[in-house]
Predict the 3D structure of the following.
Amino acid sequence: MELARAKKKLLRSLGRQIASGAVLRAMAEVPRELFVPIESRHLAYEDVALSIGEGQTISQPYIVAMMTQALELRGNERVLEIGTGSGYQAAILSLMLPDSHLISTERVPVLAERARSLLQTLGYSNVTVELAGETLGVPHHGPPRGPFDAIIVTAAAPNLPPSLTSQLAIGGRLVIPIGSLDRQELTQARRTDEGLSIHWLGTCRFVPLIGNDGFGGVDPTRPGALESDA
């Protein structure tokens, strides 16, 4: 009962900031408490990031809502998530894509397996969780898996990753935090016939993206990260 009241309170708060009814409905349906460790479940509907182990976190609900809204999904898009984390963001996207399929990649094997198992158990059957390689995304796959209509990245990059913008379809949206290790701007990049159109969504702080187009050898488990994989 306490969690139910906390969830209603959180959704009321998000409703004052998030315009998309579809995003709010998806977040109302997904049980966030099942995506956090047992010892943190009483905090599941606080608007804060929570540790999920392996130096990673489940993102603040407002950040999840804002990033999901910025993808501008209609329900039939080809979507890629970089950074599965707990699987919470993937569960929300699953509900937002009733006529399509989500590919989600994760660098940490234990997180990938845990999220894959939980998503399957909860019935989010239109999600495939894959281990990430050195190159972001799934460039080794051709249609129908790519190019993607929307890509969401739940770790910070120093710049727009060319390996991801090249996987965007014309009209496709990439939502990603960009900036320094300590402060980023949540960014929506839209691919057009002329190039990329950029829209800034606000400041944030995520753990660093590593690998090609990321922060190289930076340790993603370093202390002080406020946001991370969803």
